[in-house]
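Supplementary Methods. Inverse-folding protocol.

Structures were first reduced to a discrete structure-token string of length 646. This string, shown here, constituted the complete conditioning input.
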């Protein structure tokens, strides 16, 4: 929920107008890294802006300003606690999707082109800078639902050294600077209702140029204040008057003032009324207030500049080419006259199976059992590539992930950078104990828990592969040497083969016990040997050979399927919000639909794969690495069965 900050109000007198000054501090602020909001959201004391970080600011206009307020100007003011490099300056964009500083989620979308910039010459450490944002703020006041705040980005330079690197003041960083503020000046008219009367107006004082369209409203006029002698000839036209009627007008708008005098009932300024359409003739309306069709004999389609013709007015055969460009257009005929329509005209959509001829091969996403009318022609299209690797050590059982365009593999207490296109491995960095359980937070941190150091350990650490920063975390309540770990929504969940599970709350830096695996008919508690996240649920392979699922907050685990047919050693990889890859020790790859519980065999792994592997998804590919010196790669999109219609 977006909250309203305190606001500062000042009043300025400018001529006959009162200017109401309002200063709003940011209601929410956060920063993003590589398209994700920071996991320390709502706690950041400064907001970094550089080649890989963007800052986001939100001001609560709807709750602080009256609806439909007209402003004179608005300026965004930010404080720079530190300027490491001014570069080409920084830019201001409009955010176009919702976000919440309290959630570590995907970065909100914002406009590609900035609407304002801060030049580098104005940027310096411990300096305030400001920029005009009047038009954007006015649009948000007019349409409050479009206000999602500002995005602050570094303007790209020709090289990394020419791109700005600065820190912005944050609302939680009172000791580090000042939060962003929005200065707004609102112009109000102090004229009280009924204040303008006849004595206040000299004869002929009100000219047409003195009245803005719609400016004169009922509340601003005293009864009978506007009389004929107060108006210059032709001063008041229709668009100048907003709701003036009754007692407010005392002979003010009369034909004598307008200079267009009706000489008689059928003539105005020499123009006569007649039912016959001739030059200088006024055509009367019929009893329904419309022109009789008989009086418009020459009206045809060429006279229509706008509007829509009713369906009843369209008929016949059209020999000229017609273009239908509206996506809402539809065709209700049987298509028999569309003789030139063929497959090349179909840019999107799906052809129903019954429209495919017998023997037509196609690639489709398969549930179990097969769709009616189809037969399996074989496994395939997984497109596994074996990438020779240079590393012959032992890093397995942990995630493979990409941060800032660099790919890392973590496991067995170590982190190593790899080049997946060449198979080159970097130097091994020891982070924790051997056999430590490893989880990646999807942003920039790796968590390693437990492990073996002359026996099972209760230790836990976090590690940033980009900076090398390592943080010692509170010990787990107990010791774990084997099992699995996953990260989900700000929590690290650790599952031990000894049937002991723990939950680490990253924000609170606290451990607690997590629901033990107890399944109907399986006994329990049961150890969880391997785990992965799909959507908001955790899937784990248990020591009893079952695949179990739990959503944090549920009362217990649910058995999904029995895995006896898949072998004893199984790895799990979450592919999407509803798909889970299950890789068996027999090198089979199975795809599970987590909504229906159905699974299909997609492809076989290469024969040189092993059963102790690290895995992850990088650039749309599944990457596997094991104790043998190879990397195995396959596009996620290729996990399908090839079917043929019988």
């Amino acid at each position: 929920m977006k909250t309203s900050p305190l606001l500062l109000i000042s009043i300025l007198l400018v001529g006959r107008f009162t200017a109401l000054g309002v200063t709003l501090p940011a209601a929410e602020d956060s920063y993003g890294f590589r398209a994700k909001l920071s996991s320390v959201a709502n706690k950041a004391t400064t907001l970094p802006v550089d080649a890989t970080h963007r800052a986001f600011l939100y001001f609560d206009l709807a709750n602080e300003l009256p609806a439909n307020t007209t402003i004179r100007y608005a300026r965004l003011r930010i404080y720079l606690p530190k300027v490491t490099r001014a570069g080409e300056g920084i830019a201001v964009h409009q955010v176009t999707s919702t976000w919440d500083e309290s959630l570590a989620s995907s970065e909100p979308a914002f406009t590609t082109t900035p609407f304002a910039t801060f030049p580098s010459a104005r940027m310096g450490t411990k300096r305030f800078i400001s920029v005009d944002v009047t038009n954007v703020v006015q649009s948000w006041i007019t349409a409050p639902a479009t206000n999602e705040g500002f995005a602050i980005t570094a303007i790209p330079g020709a090289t990394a050294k020419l791109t700005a690197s600065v820190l912005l003041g944050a609302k939680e960083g009172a000791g580090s600077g000042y939060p962003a503020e929005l200065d707004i000046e609102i112009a109000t008219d102090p004229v009280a209702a009924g204040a303008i009367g006849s004595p206040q107006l000299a004869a002929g004082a009100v000219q047409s140029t003195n009245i803005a369209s719609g400016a004169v409203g009922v509340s601003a006029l005293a009864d009978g204040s506007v009389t004929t002698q107060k108006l210059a000839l032709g001063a008041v036209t229709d668009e100048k008057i907003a709701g003036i009627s009754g007692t407010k007008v005392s002979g003010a708008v009369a034909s004598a003032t307008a200079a267009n005098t009706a000489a008689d009932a059928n003539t105005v300024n020499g123009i006569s009324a007649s039912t016959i359409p001739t030059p200088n003739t006024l055509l009367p309306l019929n009893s329904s207030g419309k022109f009789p069709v008989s009086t418009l004999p020459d009206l045809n389609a060429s006279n229509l500049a706008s509007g829509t013709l009713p369906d009843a007015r369209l008929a016949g055969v059209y020999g000229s080419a017609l273009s239908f460009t509206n996506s809402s257009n539809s065709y209700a005929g049987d298509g028999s006259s569309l003789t030139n329509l063929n497959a090349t005209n179909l840019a999107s959509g799906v052809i129903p199976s019954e429209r495919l001829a017998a023997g037509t091969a196609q690639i489709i996403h398969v549930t179990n059992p097969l769709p009616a009318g189809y037969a399996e022609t074989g496994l395939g299209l997984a497109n596994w590539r074996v990438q020779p690797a240079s590393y012959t050590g032992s890093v397995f059982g942990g995630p493979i992930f990409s941060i800032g365009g660099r790919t890392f593999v973590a496991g067995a207490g170590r982190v190593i950078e790899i080049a997946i296109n060449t198979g080159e491995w970097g130097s091994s960095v020891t982070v924790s104990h051997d056999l430590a359980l490893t989880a990646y937070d999807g942003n920039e941190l790796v968590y390693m828990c437990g492990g073996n150091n002359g026996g099972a350990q209760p230790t836990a650490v976090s590690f940033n592969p980009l900076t090398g920063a390592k943080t010692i975390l509170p010990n787990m309540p107990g010791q774990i040497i084997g099992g699995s770990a996953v990260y989900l929504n700000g929590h690290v969940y650790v599952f031990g083969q000894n049937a002991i599970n723990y939950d680490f709350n990253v924000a609170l830096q606290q451990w607690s016990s997590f629901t033990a695996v107890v399944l109907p008919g399986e006994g329990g508690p049961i150890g969880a040997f391997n785990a992965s996240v799909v959507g908001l649920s955790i899937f784990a392979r248990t020591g009893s050979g079952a695949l179990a699922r739990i959503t944090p907050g549920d009362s217990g685990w649910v058995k999904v399927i029995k895995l006896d047919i898949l072998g004893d050693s199984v790895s799990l990889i979450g592919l999407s919000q509803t798909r889970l890859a299950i890789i068996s020790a027999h090198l089979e790859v199975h795809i599970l639909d987590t909504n229906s519980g159905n699974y299909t065999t997609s492809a076989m792994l290469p024969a040189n794969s092993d059963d102790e592997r690290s895995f992850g998804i990088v650039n749309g590919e599944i990457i596997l690495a094991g104790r043998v010196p190879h990397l195995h790669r396959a596009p996620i999109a290729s996990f399908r069965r090839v079917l043929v219609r019988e």
